[in-house]
Amino acid sequence: MSIEYKSAPSQLAAEYIELRGLTRENAITEDILRSYGITAESWAQDIESGQIQGVIALSGANMVGYCFGDLKTGEVIVLAVLPSHECQGIGQRLLALIVEALKGQGHIRLFLGCAPDPSVRSYGFYRHLGWQSTGALDTHGDEILEFACR
Fold first, then answer.
1. Which of 3, 95, 115, 120 is 20 to 30 A from 137 via CA?
2. Please, where are the H alpha helices in the chain?
3. CB-hemisphere CA count at 13 Å for 42?
4. Which residue, among 51, 13, 54, has the nearest Cα to 34 in the 3D structure?
5. Is the CB of residue 99 less than 8 Å from the CB of residue 76?
6. How many whole angstroms separate alpha carbon 97 and alpha carbon 53?
7. Distance between CA 149 and CA 132 in Å, rounded?
8. pLDDT band at 124 (very low <50, low <70, confident <90, very high)
9. For the segment 86-98, what is each residue's pLDDT rounded down to a tens digit?
């Protein structure tokens, strides 16, 4: 089945949280997200206020992944794809769409937090796409990677 990419509506915020907990690596539960101050309500509010923008990937009527970026800071906040849809180019496409959105806001340097462990798939994924380590860690222990927009 083909994948359709659409702008992420605020009404699906609870589904974004649910899907985040279903990822194979780096799954984060609703309770952990809540401890970070992230709830369906806060996520929806951030979309509606224009703070963040997202893109969802749909297989038929089912959401199989998404990516969100912070329009003010240039941070790629989250990229999540269901295990059943990994290795199909969905994550790359979602990331590319958010990179373009952030570039469209005038950002010339983007950043994100990534697992510092080379055995975790995201470690190689982002580096393969041109993201580079800053040598710094964020408050969650993730390595901060940056991407220079061209």
1. 95
2. 13-20, 30-35, 40-49, 90-104, 121-128
3. 9
4. 13
5. yes
6. 10
7. 12
8. confident
9. 888 899 999 999 9
Burial of 43 (0-12, 13-18, 19+ CB in 10 A): buried
Give Dmax over CA atoms of the chain in angstroms.
Answer: 41
Question: How far is the C-alpha of 18 from the C-alpha of 12, rounded, in Å?
Answer: 10
Element of type H or E holding 38: none
Q: What is the DSSP letter of 29?
A: -
Q: 67-117, pLDDT tens digit by residue?
A: 999 999 999 999 999 887 788 889 999 999 999 999 999 999 999 999 888
Query: What is residue 19's predicted lDDT score, i.e. its pLDDT?
Result: 79
Helices vs strands, H then E, count in the chain: 5, 7
* HSE-up (13 A, CA, CB side) for residue 122: 22
> 70: which strand partners?
52
Residue 7 bridge partners (DSSP): 55
